[in-house]
Amino acid sequence: MINFSHIKKTALSFFAMSALCLAMTTQAQATAVDVELQLLVDISGSVDSTEFALQRTGYINAFKSAAVQTAISNGTIGSIAVQLIYWSGSGQQSVAVDWMEMNSLASANTFETTLLAAGRPYSGLTAPGSAINFGVGEFSGNGFDGALQVMDVSGDGTQNNGASTSAARNAALLAGIDQINGLPIGGSSLETWYQNNVQGGTDSFVILAGSFADFQAAIEQKLVSEISGNPVPEPSTMILLGSGLIGLVGYRMKKQA
Hints:
The chain is an alpha/beta fold. It contains 8 helices and 8 strands; from the N terminus they run αβααββααβαβαβαββ. A 5-stranded mixed β-sheet has the order 3-2-1-4-5, with helices on both faces. A 3-stranded antiparallel β-sheet has the order 6-8-7, with helices on both faces. It is globular.
């Protein structure tokens, strides 16, 4: 007489063991990096075409800069993993540059080529909470194993659509994201909103870019801090001079308990 109960238990044990072996194999094949860095970039309707171009160019030039390249090479492993996501309204998130290893000027050039080819998919409302929720799932099975998982949220406005930003931040931290940093583009009130609703995790921080023209200097400082693991120092103001424009960029660090 066939013992169906025994066969069922044996099959379940087999599938459980197979799943465990697959998970172990996937983890073993993951590329070790110092940081898994996800860039969540606001392209809502308040960001015009010129400002969008300044943002995109800011990321490209920052990764090519000597300061960022040095921060990467000085890491324990000497490489990081990067993903860039464009976001706008609640259901509007698009991966512009999927997870890639960044460890040289050549890889920064690959990042540039990929980002320039992506185009602009949205120009809608502002839903940073929904972007954070989307971003969390992108870390799982991304092919990299970093000592830190960092989310980097930039934008020029507060939430007017989608999931609660503070709730999304809290859920992301519970899911295992180590640090969520903010780069608001605007004034002190937006900086405060980012500190209260976006920023989270040990040694997390917010850097304020006074305008889109100041974005590149701000993102370069931010990337160096995230890659090197050094918190942004206080006091946190610096004057940027360029093309006859004086922009004020404030940046602060607030440690979480």
